[in-house]
Please model this.
Amino acid sequence: MRYLLLIGLGGGLGSMARYLCQRWMAIHYPHSFPFGTLIVNIAGCFLIGILWGLSLRPNGMNEGWRLFLMTGICGGFTTFSAFSMESLQLLRAEKTGLFMLYVVCSVILGLVATLAAFRLTQS
Model:
């Protein structure tokens, strides 16, 4: 139960940070290209990379901190960061086929699912 609370607290903070970053970008750099989301995704990937590296060090962070920071804050900020880390974990484990399958399926099937769901609501 404690881990769920840590993840929920981190997720809430990450979601609020995402909203604030996207709003700031939209106000200061109004454009049809989603710069706010792009910046959030890149920043989230950079942050989860730092946290992942730190968590693998001897005497790295404990399970509670890892779940709060990586699953909670990074997950609430952007799930793209989790996707990036999981993809790289597959590569590090030399599972190139699974890496390719995961990346292609995530991107293509995600886009197809979004389009299909959108079209279902428009008919």
Notes: The chain has two domains: 2-79, 93-123.
